[in-house]
Write a structure and sequence with these properties.
magnesium; single chain; transferase; about 300 residues; mainly alpha; Farnesyl diphosphate synthase; isoprene biosynthesis; 16 helices; globular; about 75% helix; Farnesyl Diphosphate Synthase
């Protein structure tokens, strides 16, 4: 199967997993579960669960031979609950990021934000519940493989915690207050706000597929560079956005005077940096076993994307 056919197939797997593993909208309190499902099921590229599923498949197909050679004992399991858990966590961060106390956005994934569709308190609780659900899913679905369950919990909590996702968001808010945010500030923000979450997608897939510690390190390297390339491309798209055709949020960061890669380094250097990080991500992936065609094409499509 080629990339163009595999990508929608992975997306369907992710969508079906989300629909199945998230409580029904009729579950009491219905308003809360409706809001959670509204935020989760209304679009999005599903990049994170696709990365997790594809990474797990890579190792499962390669047979994880190093795991048998070394003393490392791997537990192999279906990656879908982990993939769904990470998408729940990502969606919680978007719901909270859109709140009036943060970005105060009206639109997300082409629809009214959760607090505009429901109300602020419901959106806050829906975000809290999605974050908690991520860990409920890991606890429930990996109970039979305790070492894997512990590793997934540790990795996902670490990526979402005060030194990574939430820390990156805090530094982002602080950077908005100061006129002289530096390249180091920007790198801290994006390594933690964007790259940590993309990295944990690869690592969770690797854990479910039986990757060895050395292979997990390669996935961490790939995730770090993919995250930075993804964010630089985001900044380039924002800076070059045509608000007339892309909608009212296009060019938002540039207009808000936020520190971005383009503002600090200019368009050409930003493009060069995006290429360098993409190449570094691909080089790390190349060291993994098995057929990397899909993951390589996915990284290429994300870092060369036009929207
Ligand atoms: C509130 C704890 C907390 C964190 C918020 C996710 C986030 C941190 C802020 C959203 C703004 C932003 C530009 C974050 C960088 C990561 C990023 C590009 C997120 C959007 O991811 P996509 O493009 O979104 O994969 P979809 O909707 O396709 O899932």
């Amino acid at each position: 199967m080629d990339f163009a056919a595999q990508l929608p197939a992975y997306r369907v797997r992710a969508e079906q997993g989300l629909d199945r593993l998230v409580p029904a909208a009729t579950t009491r309190p219905a308003r809360l579960h409706e809001a959670m499902r509204y935020a989760l099921l209304g679009g999005g590229k599903r990049l994170r669960p696709i990365l997790t599923l594809a990474t797990a498949d890579l190792f499962a197909r390669a047979g994880a031979p190093e795991a048998q050679i070394s003393n490392f004992k791997s537990e192999i399991a279906d990656a879908l609950p982990a993939a769904v858990a990470i998408e729940c966590l990502h969606t919680y961060s978007l719901v909270h990021d859109d709140l009036p106390c943060m970005d105060d956005d009206d639109l997300r994934r082409g629809r009214p934000t959760t607090h505009r569709q429901f109300d602020e308190a419901t959106a806050l609780l829906a975000g809290d519940a999605l974050l908690t659900l991520a860990f409920q899913l890991v606890g429930q679905h990996y109970a039979a493989t305790p070492a894997l369950c512990a590793a997934l919990t540790r990795e996902i909590a670490d990526a979402a915690g005060s030194e990574k996702l939430i820390g990156g968001q805090m530094e982002d808010l602080l950077a908005e207050q100061k006129a002289d945010a530096t390249a180091a500030d920007l790198e801290f923000i994006h390594l933690n706000k964007t790259a940590a979450m993309l990295t944990v997608c690869l690592v969770a897939g690797g854990l479910c597929g039986g990757a060895t510690p050395a292979q997990l390190d390669r996935l961490r390297t790939a995730g770090r560079h993919l995250g930075l390339a993804f964010q630089i491309v985001d900044d380039i798209l924002d800076a070059t956005a045509d608000t007339a055709t892309l909608g009212k949020t296009a060019g938002k960061d540039a207009q808000a005077g936020k520190t971005t890669y383009v503002k600090l380094h200019g368009l050409e250097t930003s493009r060069q940096l995006a290429r360098e990080h993409t190449d570094a991500a691909l080089a790390a992936l190349a060291l993994l076993p098995g057929d990397k065609t899909f993951l390589t094409a996915l990284v290429g499509s994300l870092t060369g994307r036009t929207s």
